[in-house]
Amino acid sequence: MESESVNIYPINTSVFDKPKDQALFVCWIQNEIEGILIDGSLHQNVSNAILFLNKKLNWKLIKGEQQGSAGYVMSMNPEVLNNPALSKLQINEIRLFNEKEIPIINLSPGIAKRTQDILEMIDELLGSELNHKDEAILSLLYTFFVYCDGQCNIKSVISENGSKNTVVYNFKKLVDQHVSQYHDVSDYARILNISPKYLNECVKEVLDYTAKGIISEQLLMRSRHLLKFSDQTIKEISYNLGFSSPDYFSYFFKNQTGTAPSSLRKL
Fold first, then answer.
1. How far apart are CA 179 and CA 221, in angstroms?
2. Domains plus CATH for the chain?
3. Rounded to an integer, what distance in angstroms lies between the CA atom of residue 196 and that of residue 144?
4. What pTM, to 2 d.p., does this model score?
5. How far is CA 1 from the centre of its chain?
6. Whether 65 contacts 14, CB under 8 Å
7. How far is the C-alpha of 72 from the C-alpha of 49, rounded, in Å?
8. What Rg do the C-alpha atoms of the chain give, in angstroms?
9. What is the C-alpha to C-alpha distance for residues 195 and 48, in angstroms, rounded to an integer?
């Protein structure tokens, strides 16, 4: 892959027109924009989302007068996806860049920051003269698309705005904000003013995952990070994450990973 096959554009003008590149486009909308106009159809109030746009579409982003950048647009030569390193990703298998639908992925809060970091690293590499930068960019693209395919994210079609997608997106935001306080599906269902059964139904239909699995995944991700990168004791971590005791935290962690917290810390 040649680095000229990829470009990154910040969304920093009130109206961002489609670049001239004959390419596929990935639009990462970090901060809410007024809308995106696609082939004459306006889709309003898009935020915290990634859109996949094929090269035949005519589109523009309407950022409005908000200050700063609203995100990034990445253009790619279609041949990039034929690289052996990317060819087996689900992005190819389900043909996200098809001509009939416009896929949109609403990012979970924890993933949004990582995708921003990846795009900024790609942009930095594109402007550098570093050795092996093409290989580094390809590796970052792979990581970016793996994150897009993550279970934490909500995949839909931009023309749809189903209530179940909204429920799951709000549930994901609540888990990110309150997972150290609430570990039970019933707690989140109560906040959302729906039944636990309906919440599970929504999560299963949209993500093919369980609501409890989403909570456990977030707890596990935070546990790993604290064990590897903080000076907190295992006892402190267990209470800070809302577990009733260090023993129960150790049971949860080992049940999820097959490894005791103390063993991970030694690695």
1. 11
2. 3-157 (2.60.120), 163-266 (1.10.10.60)
3. 33
4. 0.59
5. 24
6. yes
7. 11
8. 20
9. 26
Tell me if 184 sits within 8 A of 198, measured CB to CB.
no
Orientation angle between helical segments 211-229 and 246-257, nearest 10 degrees: 110
Question: Are residues 159 and 102 in contact, defined by beta-carbon separation less than 8 angstroms?
Answer: yes
Task: Say if CB 71 and CB 120 are below 8 A apart.
Answer: no
pLDDT at 27 over 90: yes
pLDDT of residue 161: 44
261 C-beta neighbours (distance < 10 Å), count: 20
Give tens-digit pLDDT for 105-153: 877 767 888 888 999 999 999 999 888 899 999 999 999 988 887 655 6
pLDDT at 109: 66
DSSP letter assigned to residue 64: T
pLDDT tens for residues 198-250? 999 988 887 778 999 989 988 998 999 899 888 999 999 999 999 999 999 99
Which strand (E) or helix (H) includes residue 155?
strand 154-157
The sheet carrying 33-38 orders its strands as 15-17, 59-62, 33-38, 41-46
